Amino acid sequence: xxxxxLTSLHDEEYDVPLNLQNLNHSTMVFxxxxxxxxxxxxxxxxxxxxxxxxxxxxxxxxxANPVDRVEPWDYDPFMGESIPVPSNWAMLKEKWYFFEGSAxxxxxxxxxxxxxxxxxxxxxxxxxxxxxxxxxxxxxFLNGKFLGNxxxxxxxxxxxxxxxxxxxxxxxxxxxxxxxxxxxxxMRNTDxxxxxxxYREVELFSLPREFIRDMFIRLSQDGRAIEVDVxxxxxxxxxxxxxxxxxxxxEIPELGIAQKINIEHGKGTCRIAxxxxxxxxxxxxxxxxxxxxxxxxxxxxxxxRSIVRQGVDILLNGEPIWLRGISVHxxxxxxxxxxxxxxxxxxxxxxxxxxxxxxxxAHYPHHxxxxxxxxxxxxxxxxxxxxYWAIDFDNHNTLKxxxxxxxxxxxxxxxxxxxxxxxxxxxxxxTDSRLSFMRDLAETARLYDPxxxxxxxxxxxxxxxxxxxxxxxxxxxxxxxxxxxxxDENFDDLYAIGKNSDPDxxxxxxxxxxxxxxxxxxxxxxxxxxxxxxxxxxxxxDTLQKLAYIKGMSPWILYDFxxxxxxxxxxxxxxxxxxxxxxKSTKKEAFNVLASFYHSIKD
Length: 603
Ligand code: GCB
Known about the structure:
Layout: E1 37-38, E2 41-48, H1 52-55, E3 82-85, E4 102-108, H2 112-118, E5 126-131, E6 134-135, E7 137-142, E8 145-151, E9 157-160, E10 171-177, E11 197-198, E12 202-207, E13 211-219, E14 225-233, E15 247-252, E16 257-262, E17 267-273, E18 287-293, E19 296-302, E20 307-310, E21 313-316, E22 319-320, E23 323-328, H3 341-354, E24 358-361, H4 368-377, E25 380-384, H5 396-413, E26 419-426, H6 432-448, E27 453-458, E28 460-461, E29 466-467, E30 477-481, H7 492-500, E31 507-511, H8 530-544, E32 550-553, E33 561-562, E34 574-575, H9 589-602
Parallel strand pairs: 23-24, 23-32, 24-25, 25-26, 26-27, 27-30, 30-31, 31-32
Antiparallel strand pairs: 1-12, 2-3, 2-4, 4-10, 5-9, 5-12, 6-11, 7-8, 7-10, 13-14, 14-17, 15-16, 15-18, 18-19, 20-21, 21-22, 28-29, 33-34
Helix pairs in contact: 3-4, 5-6, 8-9
This protein binds (2S,3S,4S,5R)-3,4,5-trihydroxy-6-oxo-oxane-2-carboxylic acid (GCB).
GO molecular function, one term: beta-glucuronidase activity
Domain Glycoside hydrolase family 2 immunoglobulin-like beta-sandwich: 212-305
Domain Glycoside hydrolase family 2 catalytic: 313-593
């Protein structure tokens, strides 16, 4: 066999450890606001249901003219079909609509990069690849070498390429697998579409030898200071023992802050007395923050505000607040989970029209631009991880995966004033193993971010007709999803639950609603009619607004969204509980019902 020939390996000879999760939160790099080389655009693509590529080591193939080859290849990573990145393959060709399995992406890195590397000034640069999100498991290969594996379909991951870059041609390959398995988060059954693929931006960052790895900045708990944590990274082969950077500089010009921060063993922390104007939905005031360390410099626009729970109240900047919210999925009729500023701005404009000050970003981490634009436009956010319905709560690796997704979300967005709640789960059965799993997640959220509230969508005891869930003791805010008037037809039960429950902390109705098919195929009355749906909203609002411990609601949901499991004649592959149809423009009657309630309580 030729040196680079393919070998047909048996399954047990895989040399790619499938359970490796080495691209986790510990490899994250602060990239917000930095310039990058985009790797979006056309990538060679091939689906691989049988995981042939791992056995035949497609990642080791070298580009060669087909006529010069001595071996038959089952797939040619360098020619053939291509797809755009970001995208979800289900949205591109009918033959890929329900495909679940592995798919290979191949791209040649832009050669300009290496021309730069030849010059002296750039030779000391480090190259970090960032993949915004790939559903669900992504293995990264550069020039035939396996560089790492990331689990979790909605958070970014980072791989350093520096030491494996060739001088001329560099081939990057990603093997992305979206198979629903029992040990993943979420597990096998969800009420949203399993969109596979690399569906957020892929970028390459060129950073100095020692760079700023992380910055966490916030208003102190006592409200009298700004606190900042800094982490600096150095090249592993550096001759110095530890980073040579011993201090960083923080500047917030509009507050007159220019502060030196001591860095020891790569870390620094600092408290600076300050009186920033408070960020709020009415006054989304942001301050430009600049951090420099050695040759590196990062900037961010940050809002300063406080959010605490006091009894059954949620206090924003010390004042009780009622959350006029709406739930939203990251879903598009044409693009799947691919989103854009335009898409997010339209969503926020619809929320404003409803009179909202709050959105629940369900059921997984959305694109980071959602939190950034919400911060700019003055919305509060609930963000969550997909610990959804049944999860393998006894599995240690599943907990590791869920925890990692939570930490990646927190580290990505914890400088965003818009985010006030981290939610750790949705409607999970109240078992001992779930309790210890979720307690661990709640502690993790507080460890990585002591400044926000922790919530979950909890349970109602339907026999006793009251809110009852052992998880509540570990949360700041109780989310309740209830569908009286829809799945639960006896509306009187909702009055009973309201009366029988006496929570000692705030409750948010994190979901309620009904399906309404407003197309020409929709019914004119009864279940699935727009009219029935609007009526459910009226009755829900009437009942819920009388309960003093309810501090907000985020009905289900802003837009109709695609899902495999909804196939009746009115659903036709969509959950139709949207206040607006899947075209993101046609409003249903219930939109106006909710809007008039929110506008009436707004002032
Ligand atoms: C729920 C789930 C949500 C579903 C919704 C529904 O309780 O949390 O993901 O889409 O109900 O429409 O049934």
